[in-house]
Amino acid sequence: xxxxxxARYADASMPQVDIALKRILPSYTEDEGxxxxxxxxxxxxxxxxxxxxxNIYEVGEVNNDWYIAMEFIYGSDLRVLxxxxxxxxxRFTNTQIARIVCExxxxxxxxxxxxxxxxxxxxxxxxxxxxxxxxxSHDNTIKLMDFGIAxxxxxxxxxxxxxxxxxxxxxxxxxxxxxxxxGRSDMFxxxxxxxxxxxxxxxxxxxxxxxxxxxxxxxxxxxxSDLDSNVPRDLGDIIMKTLERxxxxxxxxxxxxxxxxxxxxxxNGDGSDSRxxxxxMALTNKKGxxxxxxxxxxxxxxxxxYDEDRDEKFVPISDAxxxxxxxSPGMAxxxxxxxxxxxxxxxxxxxxxxxxxxxxxxxxxxPAMPQRVPVIYVLAYIVLGIVSALLIxxxxxxxxxxxxxxxxxxxxxxRLNFKAQPGAMKIIVNGxxxxxxxxxxxxxxxxxxxxxxxxxxxxxFENTGFAPVTVERxxxxxxxxxxxxxxxxxxxxxxQLTSVPKIVIDSDPEGAKIKVNGESKGxxxxxxxxxxxxxxxRIEASLDDHLNATETYIASRDSxxxxxxxxxxxxxxxxxxxASEHKSKTVAKKDVSKKSPSAAKVASGVGKIxxxxxxxxxxxxxxxxxxxxxxxxxxxxxxxxxEIHLPNKNLRVNKSVVVKPNQTVxxxxxxxxxxxx
Length: 677
Prior knowledge:
Blueprint: E1 2-7, E2 19-24, H1 32-46, E3 56-62, E4 65-71, E5 75-77, H2 78-88, H3 94-112, E6 134-137, E7 142-144, H4 173-176, H5 183-199, H6 209-218, H7 224-227, H8 233-242, H9 254-268, H10 276-283, E8 304-306, E9 314-316, E10 351-354, E11 364-367, H11 375-395, H12 399-406, E12 413-421, E13 426-429, E14 432-433, E15 446-452, E16 456-462, E17 469-474, E18 479-485, H13 489-496, E19 499-508, E20 513-516, E21 519-523, E22 526-532, E23 536-542, E24 549-554, E25 562-566, H14 575-589, E26 606-614, E27 618-621, E28 624-628, E29 631-636, E30 638-646, E31 651-659, E32 664-670, E33 675-676
Parallel strand pairs: 12-18, 19-25, 26-32
Antiparallel strand pairs: 1-2, 2-4, 3-4, 5-6, 6-7, 8-9, 10-11, 12-15, 13-14, 13-16, 16-17, 19-22, 20-21, 20-23, 23-24, 26-29, 27-28, 27-30, 30-31, 32-33
């Protein structure tokens, strides 16, 4: 919805440093709600001045173009760095990971505690603290960026409770349920990032948003040290605390998390966090650093194996130890080698096999009791008896009770909002017309239709004079919008005509070999079907004892549906000379408006190309992007290829034009009508 430029201030009196300029795409400037949200992002970030947060210089508007000017960071985000680690089998050190998480937690803690000029808390929650938004700079600094969906109590665009925004794989459980959020939600997201950096796996991975959110709510989270023994147990404990589903069990603030990590680094750090910038440059092969500088990473022992084909990806290894000691900061799991485990109390004396006299019963296990039994042992046997009774009661409990526990988890209800542009469209849900409370047909906009996460709904929008639109949606979020753009019946009919349905290419004499854009299509006549509007075809016909004939064809609503290429007689020996003569004759005969632009020769000099499009478009000239429409670009005189791209509909058209010195050539395309203007 926005694009980023590297920029500098035009005013020479301003600091001449590189700036990142974030600009709303033209197609969204008419959306008042989106513009307000964009301004919210800038206004929230303008308040935040912290060494670990990307600095915002200004938020402004020029000719209805809204922009945010911000600090330019020389570095890479964790998504790029993580992809490089996976590709090249590298890994950040444990100390480096702890430092990245620690500095990001400091930035979050500052944002969460931020107040206005009167000391009133702003209640900022980032809500998207994902790898895309955490940067490692070349100068060894960690930067948190993009408060685009951040929630602040003072923002103009209020976010309703129940509205879910953010990336599904990194949501906190309360965020997935659409609950009221506080800073501990960002802590869970950051903990997910940390878990993935330590283990090299995705924590919540599935094929759909619904499945991912289900895993966020109920999937077992395995201790990082149990997946890789190279991860220190106590560092893993810190991260596991951030991933508690009950937010009251997490650290109370991100500042508490940062303190815990600082303490761990002070005791266990190896100093590699001072080389984070070098690691970043090596992973991205920047400034003379290369990937070869970093050692290959070999995963340590694991109690689980990874199975891509299973819903629960991590499967216990059958020969792995089945019992481990309870862990806490400073205590290592058996076999992990971080620290020696605490000693257990002395074991009781060995048990002996004894037969009770006078009864034909099998032998029983009877511990050999010492003459004097300590009170602690007696108490231990009493506790053991109580535990055994509870276990027996659990095993023999009625089956239906157990089944009730197994199905206790239930995904929450959802509310669907139906919207259409323009409004007042009748709504049909799963084949049933939606009625209002008065019993009349309900029309858009319609809010809070009751559903449940995991449902699949088919919704049809219709009204007189409009082409009906039917969409299928999976219900993923507790509050979910289903919105469509309606076309009138006339607009819909025009929209279907986006290609030339059939083009017949023939030759004179008959039977010439036809090539289209260098690809052989057989002998004439040749039929091409469904050629997209705006596509340029270079058609070539060849025949023995004849000179080749060529023609350039651009598909549009007004272009011809039948072509015939005429080949003049000539010999192969004199083909090049005859072709030159043929070309000059052909140009003289043909109307100038019909000739191929590539055939024109113009004097050297400079001219301009002015490009327009409806509703708008991204302009490229000779393969290089030059900006968005309306766009006037200075070019050298000669032939140039102009491409206009409408990203939100994935439509592209192109055209070759000839520019003469001091001439401005106007090029325009109407994507709504599907024709050149």
